[in-house]
Amino acid sequence: MKTMTCKQLAGACDQPFSANSFEEIAKKSQQHGKEMFQQGDQAHLDAMNNMGKFTSEEMKIWLEQKKEEFDSLPEDN
Fold first, then answer.
1. In terms of domain of life, where is this protein from (predicted)?
2. pLDDT tens per residue, the chain (77 residues)?
3. Which of 18, 27, 29, 40 matches a 20 to 30 Å C-alpha distance to 52?
């Protein structure tokens, strides 16, 4: 199990997410983003807007980099 925060995943807060795979942590981050969107949290809305400006190629590169970052993290204790 590894942990990354919302901010590490281009979000706006220090909410931690723990998962066994990058795909799982990405799903948790996306769910959190949806909840923050529904609450109208401006910081998260701004973060989502910034991510929305990525081209598909930029998004692919960003995802690869975040997966590498996740893979390089130590296992949680």
1. Bacteria
2. 999 999 999 999 999 999 999 999 999 999 999 999 999 999 999 999 999 999 999 999 999 999 999 999 999 98
3. 18
DSSP result, the chain = -EEEETGGGT-SS--EEEESSHHHHHHHHHHHHHHHHHHT-HHHHHHHHHHHT--HHHHHHHHHHHHHHHHHSPPP-
CA pair distance 33, 43, nearest whole angstrom: 11
- Identity (one letter) of the amino acid at 23? E
How many Å apart are CA 77 and CA 74, to the nearest integer? 9
Which residue type is seen at 16? Answer: P
Q: Which residue do the tokens 């723990």 mark?
A: 18
Rounded to 5°, the CA angle 61-16-52 comes to: 35
